[in-house]
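From: lab user (bench 3)
To: helpdesk
Subject: output format question, protein + adenosine-5'-triphosphate

Hello, I'm new to running complex predictions and I'm not sure whether the block I got back is the full result or only part of it. Here's what I submitted:
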Amino acid sequence: MNAQRRHIRQSPDRLSASKLLSVENLSVAYSGGSISALEGINLDVHEGEIVALLGVNGAGKTTLLRAVSGLLGLHGGAVRSGSISYQRKNLGDESPWGRVRKGISISLEGRRVFTDLSVQDNLKAGGYTQSKSAAAKAYQNVVELFPVLARKRDLAAGLLSGGEQQMLAVGRALMQGPKLLLLDEPSLGLAPLIVNQIRDIIVEINGQGCSVLLIEQNVGTALSIADYAYVLDSRRVEHHGTAQEMLADDTLRDLYLGIAAPAAGRKLNKEAVR
Ligand SMILES: Nc1ncnc2c1ncn2[C@@H]1O[C@H](COP(=O)(O)OP(=O)(O)OP(=O)(O)O)[C@@H](O)[C@H]1O
Ligand SMILES: [Mg+2]
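Helpdesk reply: Thanks, we reran it on our side. This is the complete output you should expect:
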């Protein structure tokens, strides 16, 4: 893409909120450094925010979530330079489970549920870092958010529909009681009705005090609930700004977002979904 890189100004509200996650000048490469996947990324998630991570296939979105969750090594990737701080402390070489204990949970792309295990056992596996009472409380919260998981708790997860498996994947991440939830394309391949259901649940989870970093191919859906958004292109952040600012930017909409201008007067933030 040839669009000149622009940084839309940060809203005053955002600057005053406290930073939960701060990615600074992060560069990541795979295969012993031969494949560069991210270069000089700067990105913040503040307490209480839903932040959308947008961008074309191969831009580096999943790589960024792997870096934050500590899973890069499993994929032959490594941080080359820069830092990731959570609650103002550098995560450094903290293990994936150490990050989970600190409150960072990830729901991976492609609904990675344990297909042979029951729905209930999948959820229990998600709560492995929790005390018994905390896991029981989290389970109650998850089945209230996703009643279908309670109804099908004894069914093997592999027998759930695609949308239900996605709900299970998100539910499993919630079993760890996260403060920061990383979601990689939670609505990929799902019917519009289910996409809306998952969107509403993300807003509800956020309303419970959990910040969300959301990768979403459906830009309209993402910006309808996000407070702030970053657009990645070819390993770099090409644009960032509030969802409202992005939607109001004609050039950005045409070049990157592939969506029509919002209807005049339509409220476009998570308050409208709540
Ligand atoms: N395990 C890996 N080993 C080597 N290269 C990888 C690996 N995973 C990803 N890459 C490369 O890193 C770049 C970024 O990939 P990434 O999966 O982060 O993109 P993405 O934005 O999530 O794409 P998509 O929208 O298709 O999911 C791509 O060029 C990809 O080929
Ligand atoms: Mg991806």
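A quick orientation on your result: Confidence is low (pLDDT under 50) at residues 1-9, 264-268. Let us know if anything else is unclear.
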